[in-house]
């Protein structure tokens, strides 16, 4: 089974993952960190920023890359994921755009932009740690149910449910783009360490299917079962449907502290 860590709440999850990132940066100052958007990873970014502000974490050489991006939003749009990452990750950590890699959602040739981004990640040496969230239907990135487990970075059409979920960031549902560029599942699996954070009861079913269900394209996040170093960090509410929760608690409690995540 993949590593599952059950924490009391979202804040504790953010602190734990920030600790793992800090340990990575200590080992490899120029590490490439894959970041996700949305509300779930915000405790991670706040915990990292607090360490930088306190002078206990030096990220001057850290590089950051993007998991996905809307297609068609103009450059500088406040809800483009590039803008969100600049606002929530780069600025709080004191990093400039020269530290950032992302796909071009405004390109006139989106398939070429997708291939170029995959190539850029490889040229950068690959992602050292990729932060992931999970949708209520088990999607990761914008790899919706029935996505190929070998897929590469590509354009995807958002489902009506995902557009409705994301409408809270826009003035209306009509403003939510219909298409996105997303790292494919095959691309995601190339990261050296995958760390998925899930919080809240609404994610409990998807977490259980990911961790304890069969490997299936219907649950894209179940592909993490194939990865040699995948960590699932969940709060008590998101862990509620795990049949082996006691096992996961005991296993993590017995893990030597020096191993980290």
Helices and strands in order, then pairings?
Blueprint: E1 3-7, H1 10-27, E2 32-35, H2 42-54, E3 63-66, E4 68-70, H3 81-93, E5 100-101, H4 110-123, E6 129-132, E7 154-157, H5 160-166, E8 179-182, H6 185-188, E9 193-198, H7 204-212, E10 230-235, H8 245-253
Parallel strand pairs: 1-10, 2-3, 2-6, 3-5, 6-9, 9-10
Antiparallel strand pairs: 4-8, 7-8
Number of helices: 8
> Helix proportion of residues, in percent?
25-40%
Number of strands: 10
Main sheet record: 7 strands, parallel
Description:
The protein is of the alpha/beta class. It has a single domain (3-253), classed as Rossmann fold (3-Layer(aba) Sandwich). The protein has helices at 10-27, 42-54, 81-93, 110-123, 160-166, 185-188, 204-212, 245-253, and strands at residues 3-7, 32-35, 63-66, 68-70, 100-101, 129-132, 154-157, 179-182, 193-198, 230-235. The strands form 2 sheets. The protein has a 7-stranded parallel beta sheet with strand order 1-10-9-6-2-3-5, with helices on both faces. It is globular, with a radius of gyration of 17 Å. The relative contact order is 0.18. The mean pLDDT is 95.
Write out key terms for the chains shown.
261 residues; 7-stranded parallel beta sheet; 16% strand; 3-stranded antiparallel beta sheet; alpha/beta; hydrolase; Rossmann fold; single chain
């Amino acid at each position: 089974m993949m590593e599952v860590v059950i924490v009391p709440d979202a804040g504790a999850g953010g602190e734990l993952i920030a600790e793992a990132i800090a340990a990575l940066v200590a080992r490899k100052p120029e590490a490439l960190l894959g970041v996700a958007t949305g509300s779930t990873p915000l405790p991670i970014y706040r915990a990292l920023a607090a360490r930088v502000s306190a002078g206990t974490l030096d990220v001057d050489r850290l590089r950051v890359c993007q998991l996905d991006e809307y297609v068609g939003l103009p450059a500088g749009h406040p809800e483009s994921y590039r803008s969100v990452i600049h606002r929530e990750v780069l600025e709080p950590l004191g990093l400039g755009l020269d530290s950032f890699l992302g796909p071009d959602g405004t390109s006139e040739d989106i398939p070429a932009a997708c291939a170029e981004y995959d190539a850029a990640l490889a040229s950068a040496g690959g992602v050292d740690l990729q932060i992931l969230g999970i949708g209520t239907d088990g999607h990761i990135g914008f790899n919706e149910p029935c996505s190929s487990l070998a897929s590469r970075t590509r354009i995807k059409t958002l489902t009506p449910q995902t557009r409705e979920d994301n409408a809270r960031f826009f003035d209306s549902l009509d403003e939510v783009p219909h298409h996105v560029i997303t790292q494919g599942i095959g691309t995601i699996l190339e990261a050296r360490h995958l760390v998925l954070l899930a919080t809240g009861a609404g994610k409990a079913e998807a977490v259980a299917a990911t961790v304890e269900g069969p490997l299936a394209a219907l649950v894209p996040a179940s592909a993490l079962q194939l990865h040699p170093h995948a960590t699932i960090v969940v709060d008590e509410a998101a862990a509620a449907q795990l049949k082996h929760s006691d096992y996961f608690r005991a296993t993590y409690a017995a893990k030597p502290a020096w191993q980290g995540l």
